[in-house]
Amino acid sequence: MGRFVDLTLAGLTSGAVYAAVALALVLIWRSTRIVNFAQGGMLMITTFIAYTIISHGGSYWLALVVAVASGLVLGAVVERVLVRPVEKRSPLDAVVVTFGLLVLLQGAAGMLFGGTPRSYPPAFGIGGFQAGGRQLLFAPNDLWIVLVVLAVMAALALVFRKTSLGLRMRATAFAPEVARLLGVRVGRMLTLGWALAAAVGALAGVLIAPSTFVSPTAFDAVLVFGFTAAVIGGLDSPPGAVVGGLALGIVLSYVAGYLGSDIVTLASLVVLIAVLMVRPQGLFGTAKGRQV
């Protein structure tokens, strides 16, 4: 029983990490209808910026603020410079651009920071909580990650469902020409969507960093699992991204603990296929949203 509890708690922590990345992907999709495969590279760059702040004596919280601000700027620049010229072409062109950007960012990070993995300090302690006379595999820093992800999910859901800004962003994504006729500044909304998604990704990178080493390719696997979580939950749904991330993290934790870590990637593929066979739009997605 103790092993089951430990695996569940470990799955919640890793699932929150996947959910954080999934939230960034969902935000891009809901605001621009583009899957940003460069998200891992973008959050890697902002995490390196945060690491530089800390390595020069800055606090964790200063590094977090700088990383999020850097993400806002990076997302806006990427949309204006790289995505805007291909936005009226085939959706595949934008996907190719994001893949190319991923390779570019990883190469630039390798030249600027080197390929040596760096350790990143956590916000809070990593010693597990005590319960029933035993130490749990769930620490204050893990609790911090889960709470931040839930707060970001709630904020995004509120923005998209209850505010005029969210309505304009959704209208821009689904029907840009109609949105223009209604007075929506479509270009500005697209830029804002990319900026917010990159900021959420930067936050995710800082949350993830203490549990892995920071290097140009350190976040590739996290991006894959984050994308899987986003598709499972539904690319239109911030709550779905969180549920998909947490569920995937728990399932993969059980697989690694009971069957071996060698088949974790295969298990994530099996979970993804099983969900899509039952609900192609994802657990919380809508068929209409996926068809646009």
TrEMBL record:
<dbReference type="GO" id="GO:0005886">
    <property type="term" value="C:plasma membrane"/>
</dbReference>
<feature type="transmembrane region" description="Helical">
    <location>
        <begin position="263"/>
        <end position="280"/>
    </location>
</feature>
<feature type="transmembrane region" description="Helical">
    <location>
        <begin position="143"/>
        <end position="160"/>
    </location>
</feature>
<protein>
    <submittedName>
        <fullName>Amino acid/amide ABC transporter membrane protein 1, HAAT family</fullName>
    </submittedName>
</protein>
<feature type="transmembrane region" description="Helical">
    <location>
        <begin position="240"/>
        <end position="257"/>
    </location>
</feature>
<dbReference type="InterPro" id="IPR052157">
    <property type="entry name" value="BCAA_transport_permease"/>
</dbReference>
<keyword id="KW-1003">Cell membrane</keyword>
<dbReference type="GO" id="GO:0006865">
    <property type="term" value="P:amino acid transport"/>
</dbReference>
<feature type="transmembrane region" description="Helical">
    <location>
        <begin position="94"/>
        <end position="114"/>
    </location>
</feature>
<keyword id="KW-1133">Transmembrane helix</keyword>
<dbReference type="Pfam" id="PF02653">
    <property type="entry name" value="BPD_transp_2"/>
</dbReference>
<feature type="transmembrane region" description="Helical">
    <location>
        <begin position="214"/>
        <end position="233"/>
    </location>
</feature>
<keyword id="KW-0812">Transmembrane</keyword>
<keyword id="KW-0813">Transport</keyword>
<dbReference type="InterPro" id="IPR001851">
    <property type="entry name" value="ABC_transp_permease"/>
</dbReference>
<comment type="similarity">
    <text>Belongs to the binding-protein-dependent transport system permease family. LivHM subfamily.</text>
</comment>
<feature type="transmembrane region" description="Helical">
    <location>
        <begin position="34"/>
        <end position="54"/>
    </location>
</feature>
<feature type="transmembrane region" description="Helical">
    <location>
        <begin position="189"/>
        <end position="208"/>
    </location>
</feature>
<feature type="transmembrane region" description="Helical">
    <location>
        <begin position="60"/>
        <end position="82"/>
    </location>
</feature>
<keyword id="KW-0472">Membrane</keyword>
<keyword id="KW-0029">Amino-acid transport</keyword>
<dbReference type="GO" id="GO:0022857">
    <property type="term" value="F:transmembrane transporter activity"/>
</dbReference>
<feature type="transmembrane region" description="Helical">
    <location>
        <begin position="6"/>
        <end position="27"/>
    </location>
</feature>
